[in-house]
Every structure is written in C-alpha cells, then in structure tokens.
Amino acid sequence: MKILVTGKNGQLGRSIQKTVNADTKIGNNQSPNEYIFAGREDLDLSSKSSISHYFDNNKFDLIINCAAYTQVDKAEQEIGLADQINHLAVKQLASIASNQQARLIHISTDYVFDGESDKPYIETDTPNPINAYSRTKLAGEKALQALMPINAIIIRTSWLYSEYGNNFVKTMLRLGRERDELSAVNDQMGSPTYATDLADAILEIIRHKKFRDVAQTTQIYNYSGEGEISWHEFAKEIFKLAEIDCKVSPITTQQYPTPAKRPRNTFMNKDKIVKVFNIKISNWKSSLNTCMTILKKQQ
Ligand SMILES: NC(=O)c1ccc[n+]([C@@H]2O[C@H](COP(=O)([O-])OP(=O)(O)OC[C@H]3O[C@@H](n4cnc5c(N)ncnc54)[C@H](OP(=O)(O)O)[C@@H]3O)[C@@H](O)[C@H]2O)c1
Fold it and tell me: 240 C-alpha vs ligand 1 centroid, how far in Å?
C-alpha cells in the first residue's frame, strides 16, 4: 500500500514516523508499504486548492489524517480556520479518498462528548460538543461518514502526550522545575494517551485482515490509555517519575477558567477496538513511564 500520513510534524504524525522507522530497522515491516509523510508545507489543509492540487499529483491506497487544528482555547476565536481544517478539509479528504478508492483513517476526540455521563462512553453514545474545537471535530466525523459509508475508520482518542511538540507532560516538567508549587484541575477526568501507543494501534489495524477486507462499513473506535484520572493526578505522577519536588494543589475547573469549556468526564470504553482488531490497551502509568524515560535521555 502507498500510505499518506498528514500532520507529519505533530505528536501523532511524528510518533507514527518513529514506529514505522523502528519496524523497518528490526525487520518487522514485511508488508511492502510505502509511507509518505506530509506537513502543512506539502499539503495545507486550510486551503481547498492546496488539497486539490496535492491529490491531483498524488494517489494513495490509504490516508491517515493526523493533521488537525488542535488549539482548543484559540478555536473559540478562530472558529472559521478550525472548521476549515477539522471539518471542511476532512470532507474534502473523504471525497478524494472515495474517488481514489483509498481507505481513510481519521483521528477524532473524546471532546465530541459533553462529559456529563457517569458511565464510560461507547462509540454509539450521542455526541454533544461543548466548545468550538469539538464542534468542528464532530462536523468532520459526520462529513466523513456521509461521504464514505465504507472504507474509513474514525479513532476517537483523548489527552494525547508524547516526547514531541507541546503537551501537558512537557508543560508540567518545565513548570515543575521552575516552581515549588503549582495547581492542577481535579474535577475533569479522562485517560491520558501516549501517542506512540496510538501509533502502534494504528499500524496494528492496518496489518489486520479485517482492515484489509474489501468494502468494510465505516466505523468509529475509541482508543486511549487505560485508567481514569484527573489532571491533578496526572501532574502528581509526572513529578513523581521525574523526581521533581513540586507541590501540586488540586483546584476546580471554576478556579481555573479557560476560554473554551472542557467536558467533565470523558472516560471511553475501548472494548470495540480490542475485540475487532485485537488491540492491546496500555495502562496510563506504564506508558507515561516509557515516555518519561525517553524524555530523560533527551535532557
Ligand atoms: N492533543 C490532544 O490532547 C488530543 C486529544 C484528543 C484528540 N486529538 C486528536 O488527535 C489528532 C492528533 O493530535 P496531535 O496531538 O498529534 O496534534 P498536534 O501535535 O497539534 O499536530 C497537529 C498537526 O496538524 C498540523 N496542521 C495544523 N494546521 C494545518 C494545516 N492548515 N495544514 C496542514 N497541517 C496542519 C500541524 O502542523 P504544524 O506542525 O505545521 O503546526 C501539526 O503538525 C488530532 O486529530 C487531534 O484532534 C488530540
């Protein structure tokens, strides 16, 4: 397969590159897949003509869309741009994939839910986004499903972190070294997801027979690390593993107002992806440990 991965400089895009390179090195990559990684400089999702132009000259068997407008607070102001990248560009990618008879794996978010459920979310629960970013992501999901009733997969993930780019883990490490004390929200619950684990899961799906079977109905799958925690617990564990002596005080969402509202509890049930593709779900603490070990080596 000729596989396009968008968002090559983002957390997930870089994690997929790392995993593909590691697989090639140890000789696991027996399938004759050719990966092309594209960044905004190659394929600008904010421009309809850039997208058309790129695919006029390139044809793929599979598109993995890791690019997105991910600035949750800024999206409240830049709703037009967020909608173009997270919704209209996804619609265009779905239309192109359909015309090229390519498959599409698209990444979405737990934030499509309002977070008010007391049970873990399953894929068929009704979304109810509560901020601009999440509304654009849901619109992207819906446009994709309408244009590609077959041959696509949407993976909803949550609280992504990695050794790349900006994320909660790296921010906490920086702040924890600068300060003796800081606060973190303890009434928003979710599951941290190590981007390398998600990259591994995506590559596992691609290798799976069920993915390769023709004309599979388009499906949504939940994927995150295992465990349900607050940002406060997450910060405490980061400092513990990094041996940083910084006190973390719990605060409420009300005490930490942000431009975009956040869902209260987005814990997702992962049974479907485990059952269909035999995907292993890693415990959030062990994955955090793996990421922190890599970050330590980079210091
Ligand atoms: N981060 C999270 O906590 C989280 C949680 C749930 C779901 N997700 C979803 O998971 C996916 C991957 O997230 P991530 O954390 O890897 O995101 P990320 O690190 O912010 O990377 C997003 C990538 O999209 C690219 N991009 C932005 N605008 C673009 C444009 N106009 N044209 C082309 N590329 C553009 C960025 O390019 P530049 O590098 O050039 O800016 C960046 O490389 C996204 O779909 C996101 O919505 C993320």
Answer: 28
